[in-house]
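Narrative of activities, Objective 1.

The group set out to show that a structural description can be obtained from nothing but a protein's sequence at a throughput compatible with the screening campaign. Below is one input-output pair from the validation batch, recorded exactly as produced.
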Amino acid sequence: MFIGTHEQAIRKQKEMEAEFKKTKEDQLKLAKLLKKLLAKEKEMGELVGRDKLSKLKVIHSFQVANQKIDHLTEELKLDEEDENIEEEGFIYVKRTIYQNVDVHFGKYRREISSNFQKTQISLIDSEIKINTN
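Output recorded for this entry:
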C-alpha cells in the first residue's frame, strides 16, 4: 500500500536520475567528438565544409547538454530538500487490513503482522504506528 504522492515522487526522481545519467554520457561523447574536431582544426589550420558545420553543431549540443544538466541538478536538489521535510501522514482503514500487507510512507515501510479492523495507520516521528479504535 503506497500513498500515491510518494510513489509518484519516487518514480519522478528515478526518471530524473536516469535522464541525468544519460545526459552526462551524451555530454562525454560530445566532448570527445569536439576534442577530435579541435585537434583536426589545429592540424589543418581552419575547418571547411562539413567539418566546420559539425563543429558548430557539436558546440551547440554541448551547451544544451550543460544547460540540461544544470536544470536536472537543481531539480534533484529541490526534491532532496522536499524529502527532508517530514510530514505526518495517516490512513484510515474502515474495514479490514490483512496481515503481510506492506504500508509505505515515503522511505518508511512496515509490514502488517496481523489482521486489523477499523484502524488508523499513521506516520509519527519517523515511525509507522497502528491505532485500533
